[in-house]
Amino acid sequence: MIFLKIKMTVLNIVKHLINSEYELIEQLTNGIRLRAVDIKEAIDSYGRTLIMPPDIEYDNLIDIIEISNSIPKKWSVKFDLWTKEEGKSDLSLEMTLIESNNELMNVEFDDIHVL
């Protein structure tokens, strides 16, 4: 059950990234660690067009680590982004997901960077 909630949260964030909805992402993450301008700069400096990964990627390639003794429960999540030009890219999204009573988890962006 928790993996499905993590998967749906990651899918939602990736959709917003692809649609360049950086202000919306900043609102969802409360601007913790990365603001809209920081997210835009990271994507733009990579110089490629983000696309949705194949669905199977959400099942196999989400790197999830539970953060011990966190209240509410938190997970450190890393997900490789995909681009039109190269498929699976070297651009990686790192975030902290926080348990919530909502359909999706609360999100804090930790970093968007090239591996």
Folded structure, characterized:
The protein has 115 residues and is α+β, with helices and mostly antiparallel strands. It has one domain: Roll (Nuclear Transport Factor 2, Chain: A), CATH 3.10.450. 36% of the residues lie in helices and 33% in strands. It is built from 4 helices and 5 strands, in the order αααβαββββ. It has helices spanning 2-18, 22-28, 36-46, 55-60, and strands at residues 50-51, 63-67, 74-83, 87-98, 106-114. Strands 1, 2, 3, 4 and 5 form a 5-stranded antiparallel β-sheet that branches. A hairpin with a 7-residue loop joins strand 4 (87-98) and strand 5 (106-114). Helix 2 (22-28) crosses helix 3. The longest helix has 17 residues, at 2-18.
Q: Using the coordinates above, name the CATH class.
A: Alpha Beta
What is the name of the CATH architecture? Roll
Report mean pLDDT, rounded to a whole number.
93
Distance between the termini: 30 Å
User: What would the principal axes of the Cα set say about the shape?
Assistant: globular
How many E strands?
A: 5
Order of helices and strands: HHHEHEEEE
Low-confidence stretches: none
According to CATH, the fold-level topology is Nuclear Transport Factor 2, Chain: A
Number of domains: 1
Helix content: 25-40%
Main β-sheet description:
5 strands, antiparallel
